[in-house]
Here is the input.
Amino acid sequence: MKTAQINEIFDSIQGEGPYIGYRQLFIRFCGCNINCAYCDTEFKTGTVYTTDELVNKINTYDLKAIHSISLTGGEPLIHYEFLKEFLPRAGKKIYLETNGTMSRALEETAENIDIISMDIKLDSAAKIGDIFLKHENFIKTARKYEKELFAKIVFDEKIQDFEINESIRLAQNYEIPLILQPRMDGNSIAVSTDFIEQTVKKFTARYPDTRLIGQVHKFFNIR
Ligand code: SF4
Here is the structure.
């Protein structure tokens, strides 16, 4: 039986993107394949679960009351072998939060994933090279399995025009809703109002299926 290290499991409200406000059971997996400059998530330490143990654990929550199980991290897809065992037994809709770079791991697990919230990482923040090519391969895999997919772009004043151009190209080619999310510094928005407005206009002028959505859980002070 496979195992995975999990940082935390908690029942809360989705605070980002188009599913904002839905109650979800969050499973935060340890580890990530990239190292973003703005990452403020604690995902390095945790408890090792077998598939059976995780199935038992999630059944201690009121699953009837939640919209879906959110796989978050870190990068959940680095645990794709574990997910292949766990997901068919989860018994709820699966919402994957991913950095959108692990297309082969998605290929292995897509059958049991319902909604994909992927990040479009900016070169200026992720610095892993060929990031847009990795995103494109990931999106192609999601499309092959006809999965619901939207893309979130966390931005600040460092966003470059070529990053905007590449993000719009991907969105246009694959008809992906874009969510612009200003970077936060703790519970404060780390981007000026003027810059946010300019950035929204740059995107919407060329790609109207773009929305500005902040992290509402931080305003409500819920996790
Ligand atoms: S992909 Fe997400 S979890 Fe990984 S380093 Fe970047 S922000 Fe942190």
